[in-house]
Specification:
The chain is of the alpha/beta class. It is 46% helix and 17% strand. Strand 1 and strand 2 (55-66) form a beta hairpin.
Length: 419
Amino acid sequence: MSEGNNHSNPFKIAQKQINDCADILKLSESTRQVLLHPMREFHVNFPVRMDDGTTRVFQGFRVQYNDAKGPTKGGIRFHPDETIDTVRALSAWMTWKCALLDLPLGGGKGGVVCNPKELSPLELERISRGYIKAIGSFIGPDKDIPAPDVYTNPQIMAWMVDEYSSIVGKNQFGVMTGKPLPLGGSPGRGDATARGGMYALREAARRLGIDLSKATMAIQGYGNAGCYAASLAESMFGSKVVAVCDSKGAVSCQNGICVLKVNEHKEKTSSVIECEGTDGMTNNDLIALDVDVLVLAALESSVTERNVDQVKAKIVVELANGPTTPEADEVLYQKGIHVIPDFLCNAGGVTVSYFEMVQNAYMYYWNEAEVHEKLDNRMTRAYAEVAATSEKYGINMRKAAYVVAVSRVVEAMKLRGWV
């Protein structure tokens, strides 16, 4: 997550993608400048009492990138290597993601520099509440609505909701999404990111004439999204998952791994490595496997100009944010590899978060089947719009997704008299 190198700096990558789109749309320089920079960002330092009685100061960020289409929306990450440029990039991608799915929302993102693996549950709660105390005046159900992201979860959202409710003096469950069900969470939110990606994969496979019931799949990254992707690929399509990996290593099985067994092993040992019935391999080996579908569900810049030539998959499913650099993106396009870009592919999470906001607002809740149906409709329509734009302009799917999304944001900016 280096801030210095343009090739690894996620915000420089995000800005390059915006510039490429602005060139295609022939946007004015003033419009381009508004799109290239976040509208607001907040840097906070807040004290937290640790279990040993000492007090540590933690650094946090919240970026509200663009609110032309509505309140900003985006997750909160707890990560030891968090940087402001990472948060800026993710808030930009959230802007385009919300616009692509035609949600009445803008993009935001937040983060705290900390290592949750080294914190006790009480320390984690204090950091969660301390962060909300620090940014509480900048967020709200009609202003900026956070959600879980890397190393945050529904319990952390519950603490944050409670802290915000204390600040404003009333229950305000709608300030967060990704909450536990008893606090206004939505059915279907848990696997929404992966499920949305699988709906997009289904549409891509139809377009390319690939039978997913006979397809092989490798999954890089085995956190929430990767784990659900493995289970859903089996249950929805009958696909064969032949390899998975996490930060400690990769495992494979030519005849298909037992997803249930790997999930149980990961739960017990915190890693997929050395799971019974699998062979060990490196993460680089996994990316180079000759499979039909490669799912990228880890962190940013997983496929770069250094390893893109090794990719052999027919479809790349980007469940992570920014897993492919622009240089690698062009190589994949020239090789004829179909990439389902991140802010289309992983938009299921924010889409169901939007559904959660709607349900909170009028205090009526859909069942899980209804949520799945609504998500399927949104993802199917968005994929079709991006695919049609890709063919119209003769550009790759990521550039096409930008054209669709940025056009909608620019239209809202023009109508509001900003440009």
